[in-house]
Amino acid sequence: MTQAKVRTRFAPSPTGFIHLGNIRSALYPWAFARAMGGDFILRIEDTDVERSTQASVDVILEGMAWLRLDHDEGPYYQMQRMARYREVLAQLQASGHVYPCYMSMAELDALRERQTAAKEKPRYDGTWRPEPGKQLPPVPEGVQPVLRFKTPKDGVVAWDDKCKGRIEFQNSELDDLVIARPAQNGEAVGTPTYNFCVCVDDIDMRITHVIRGDDHVNNTPRQIHIFEALGAQVPVFAHLPTVLNEQGEKMSKRNGAKAVTQYRDEGYLPDAMVNYLARLGWSHGDDEIFSRAQFLEWFNLDHLGRSAGQFDEAKLRWVNAQHMKALDDFELARLVAPFVENEGVAPAALDERLPRICALFKDRCETLVDLARWVRVFYLDRVERNAEDYARHVTPEAGPLLDAFATAMATVEWNKEAIAAAIKQLLKEQGAKMPQLAMPVRVLTVGQAHTPSVDAVLELLGREKILTRLKSR
């Protein structure tokens, strides 16, 4: 018997923006499908019509595209599959796995109050569940029923979770799940509910591995029962621990989580984000920094962590900085160009110096925004000067040395070596030390006292800008 091709899925609800905790639940099934030569399916679970929005769908698609989590099929939309769900509901009714329940919400609430008062677990009591020899209550007039699934009363439902290990539920602890709401507006069957739709989707889409957040653990026994009632193969489950924010709370919009696309706008690299997110719940030995190709080569479900991962923005910035340092200078120049334009530099102004400027400053930067703020200094006419650095270094005592430096720069041959030689000669003639000249020159020309090698910075800045900025002190 040949093993089925691996097929995984990401099935977000478009009821808000997608944050890092959500996108990690896309990263692992994507990576597993890619590592195993399988397929990755995108499914939009939009049955919550009141809260689902197209804007949220757009952010999901945009965030996944930025991170290059490409899908092989989809996006499928559950609201477009209602006819299929109703068809399967009819099959389950015909096979006796589903029955109509006429208990009203008021009756259900009263039942739960009695159970709570008696210190029992609040649950549906099976009033309308058909059993051999059981007399059901008379059907009330004008009431549309919900459809409930007949949960087995005895035994255990269990699975070997690829993340959490063996998980078991006693069937006696589970009541009969509502799998369709009351019919409205002449419908033959009401709107199917989440747990049912998910199973039909996973069967139809031939999903072999369900990799999702551990907030779904309690749904899984329900879904296993539905798979079995439909005679379908139960997929392999892996329930991922929660991602916590920096305060140790579950990451969510309410707790200050940012949309994934905001990290793109803040200058993070997609490969760095993939690297960082991968380490929030999976590991490969002690490796902290790795490429996308290495991640896909190493990834499997055997090294998923069992404890919650905690987001740390400082660590994310460090990971991003390592990826920036490793980037080819021309590729880095291509990526930083839009951010430089956001800093007020006309696209046409960017020239062949850009890759060299990136090479000079990338070791000092954690994001593309950081790098763009250095790059703009080389292209804008005016430079913003750090007030503290200016007061400390651009003093009246530095004036004669700066004047002599300007004279030397006006005639020197324009390359790094000649500029370095001219500075050395000037310091010798003036009896000055390098910091006495370099610090005020840096403040006047690029706005800050600390930069990479002053001769390299000056060569890239250009004679005209240097002389103009030295005069404007």
From TrEMBL:
The Glutamyl/glutaminyl-tRNA synthetase class Ib catalytic domain, residue ranges: 5-318
Aminoacyl-tRNA synthetase class I anticodon-binding domain segment(s): 331-471
Motif ('KMSKS' region): 250-254
Top-level taxon: Bacteria
Stretches with biased composition (Basic and acidic residues): 120-132
E.C. no: 6.1.1.17
UniProt catalytic activity: tRNA(Glu) + L-glutamate + ATP = L-glutamyl-tRNA(Glu) + AMP + diphosphate
Region (Disordered): 120-143
Motif 'HIGH' region mapped to chain: 12-22
InterPro entries: aa-tRNA-synth_I_cd-bd (IPR045462), aa-tRNA-synth_I_codon-bd_sub2 (IPR020751), aa-tRNA-synth_I_CS (IPR001412), aa_tRNA-synth_I_cd-bd_sf (IPR008925), Glu-tRNA-ligase_bac/mito (IPR004527), Glu/Gln-tRNA-synth (IPR000924), Glu/Gln-tRNA-synth_Ib_cat-dom (IPR020058), GluQ/Sye (IPR049940)
Function of the molecule: Catalyzes the attachment of glutamate to tRNA(Glu) in a two-step reaction: glutamate is first activated by ATP to form Glu-AMP and then transferred to the acceptor end of tRNA(Glu).
Assembly mode: Monomer.
The name this protein goes by in its record: Glutamate--tRNA ligase
Species classification: Bacteria, Pseudomonadati, Pseudomonadota, Betaproteobacteria, Burkholderiales
Gene: gltX
